[in-house]
Amino acid sequence: MQFTELPLHKSILKAVAEERFHRPTLVQEKTIPLVLNRKNVIVSAQTGTGKTAAFALPIIDLLLNKQDAEKGAKTIKALVVTPTRELAIQILENFKSYSKYSNLRTTAVFGGVSLEPQKEFLAKGVDILVATPGRLIDLQLQGNIDLSDVEIFVLDEADLMLDMGFINDVKKIEKLIPKQKQTLLFSATIPETIDALAKSVIKNAVRVEINPEETTAKNIGQLLYYLPKKNKTDLCLHLLRNTINGKIIIFRRTKFGVDKLEQTLLKNGYKATSIHGDKSQGIRNKAIEDFKSKKATILIATDVAARGIDITNVDAIINFDIPNIPETYIHRIGRTGRAGKSGIAFSFCSPDENTYIKSIEVLLEKSIKVIDDHPYPVQKPKHKKKQPNTISKHKKGRKSEASKKKKKRWY
After folding, report:
1. Which fold has domain 3-210?
2. 10-residue block means of pLDDT along the chain (411 residues)?
3. Is the CA virtual torsion 332, 336, 342, 345 positive or negative?
4. To bridge 131 with a disulfide, which of 13, 136, 340, 404 should be the other Cys (CB 3.0-4.6 Å)?
């Protein structure tokens, strides 16, 4: 299917073509017609599948048609709630790109920066608002945001919203919006808590589910290294010197780990930068821009800080620490191999992370290729085979003797 086959406004198709997008992704192909038909939708799909365009394009189309029929001051017609500042900025950029041939106004409000410029922009009137939960509630309480005209409500990255403790804020926001609205929920996974939230705030929703194996790009090579934890930094330097080239994202589990690895790489002459939750918004924005412009060729990040950030032409991913949630592995490696290009993911597994790899391979429904030829190998763990549900002869014998004794006592 081509984008031109979707019933989108000509101005949107022109903007999409200028972004060099010609074919919609699977999630876009399934979701866009539903949103255009004013359906409530719950979408489950991994990072990197094009979820932002799946809601941005039809929202712009619906508001363009409405804008032609209405005149007067602009009020918020579409509200997108997303968990992080980086995601809010990225979604804002997408809306602006796709709506550049319209008169629609979009802005984003999020914490970590001054309130005043956000208040000033809101006062001029906007059609589409992208917001993080905390800042949205603050501005609403101060009387700077009126949500009484919202017609389309989007919850983006709902599972991350849950992980970051924003679910109660989301429930508060939902009560500030008219009951008669179209609601769209997007999430990489749908755990029980998110499913319960969806059922409470979304009525008669159509579900779109894209399986993880469908979104794990076939052109991403996956390599696994078993080694002692103490040698992970040494292996990282070894691979950067001899194997890995280009733009690289390295994932670490903790903020301390991110900072420590960044200092090591800088001391070894690598152009590295980093992002995590303790860094200011300005520093995080600069790090991402430096990486996009190749001023830095290595970006080190925690999962929360990097979730949903759209960075093109990433050549390789390094899972310095193995994630304990299998779906997170899918999020990470999906940063490379985008738009038909090839990519590769390197994973460093220490003995205490063996069970995480097993869970990831269950999700992938395949084994990850193990590389033994490196300077710091440890023996590959042997996963225990599932024992048949039978009783051993020894146990049977004991059971039999016990039964006999019981029978003797009974008689």
Report:
1. Rossmann fold (3.40.50)
2. 91 92 90 96 82 95 74 86 90 95 94 90 94 95 94 92 86 92 90 83 89 61 95 96 94 94 96 88 86 93 73 90 87 75 90 94 88 87 54 42 40 29
3. negative
4. 136
